[in-house]
Fold this sequence. Notes:
two-stranded antiparallel ribbon; about 550 residues; single chain; mainly alpha
Amino acid sequence: xxxxxxxxxxxxxxxxxxxxxxxxxxxxxxxxxxxxxxxxxxxxxxxxxxxxxxxxxxxxxxxxxxxxxxxxxxxxxxxxxxxxxxxxxxxxxxxxxxxxxxxxxxxxxxxxxxxxxxxxxxxxxxxxxxxxxxxxxxxxxxxxxxxxxxxxxxxxxxxxxxxxxxxxxxxxxxxxxxxxxxxxxxxxxxxxxxxxxxxxxxxxxxxxxxxxxxxxxxxxxxxxxxxxxxxxxxxxxxxxxxxxxxxxxxxxxxxxxxxxxxxxxxxxxxxxxxxxxxxxxxxxxxxxxxxxxxxxxxxxxxxxxxxxxxxxxxxxxxxxxxxxxxxxxxxxxxxxxxxxxxxxxxxxxxxxxxxxxxxxxxxxxxxxxxxxxxxxxxxxxxxxxxxxxxxxxxxxxxxxxxxxxxxxxxxxxxxxxxxxxxxxxxxxxxxxxxxxxxxxxxxxxxxxxxxxxxxxxxxxxxxxxxxxxxxxxxxxxxxxxxxxxxxxxxxxxxxxxxxxxxxxxxxxxxxxxxxxxxxxxxxxxxxxxxxxxxxxxxxxx
Length: 541
């Protein structure tokens, strides 16, 4: 197998996936925020909340359309670039994707149309139900995708069938309630809520700096800061749950994130800063916080978290076990019904490590021909890139705590400070608009890069998952995707900036501004109650 094909295929999927994820978190969060705003409108009847719902709903719609366009392309890649992966685990992986399309995407797409074109055709309550169905559909889409992705991390509810040479589902509910999938889902959607909150906060802060759409901006900040504070706190809590899940489903990834080369006495510390050195197998200038990693990873003071070196040695044992399973499998395939019972017993005892034997395909055509050196090389391959994981994780965590501080400030000023925001804080809110996307992309990088060299952890290596294509084929499609997605990104940014600069279409803001100024003049004249005046018949201020 040509190693260049693997690298190009990985690069193509990484680029398309990370580009698609530029739209996903904003879609998840804005759908909820818009539904909250419309709920307030229905309950209060105040036109300003209808204006807010329509304005932020427009930005949601732009983002939703481009998210759908880029997401569909990703699913086709499973057949184009990863055909052996689709063949090998399609019985399991395909089910959540099919349910996502039939149950969640159709629900979301159908009601998006009703949301935008049903304002004058549906009652307030009916339209509110539509708004929440759009939000539920968006989050259900994420649920099923992350169930599929969680199975790749922790492949439960499926068994290898030696007759078909494929993984087959044996328990759908184990796949559905997979702990890796559930922790991924709640962590990812919470990150999406933070992304949307920072976006709404930043745009609203820009309006206040420009002295435009003051009432819309103030109310939007109040909603975004409250929603964002709760979401940013939940990201930290649920991130802790993800760490606990990884401690027994992805031990090598967890050790690599910490650059923990040796098994540390329990409870293990958290490395706040350090410079990982893979050649020397140590982390230079490490600054550690005692106990923290042990508490996050094990929820105990006595359980150890294994280090990279011990896990690599364990991989050597797994590869040897996998070779016994592979040898028995080849005999089963050759003899079929005449296979001795002892051979089948050997396969059953070692089948859980069969995927480790597949790691040897990178070095030899037949894993049974592997030497001790090949086994050692394959075991070392189970260590992902330590330094990239180490730093990506810390960028993500650092930004997460920054979001808590920002949301806490704006929530406090909205709730107890009479919405008097400092200009430096408003400028800061505008400046940090891109940062939740950086945090989200770092999170996906940690999740996907940390799983290498596996497509399905412990089951199917990435190098074995690709289609039999030429380097030219993959390079041309990679270039095509880069050009196409760059055009889409430019379109997205122009549309979003156009509608943000234009602001809300309805004239509610001007009416409110005139009314407040008119009442202020009356109060300054000594009148305690303003007579009813139609602002439409008044001269412009």
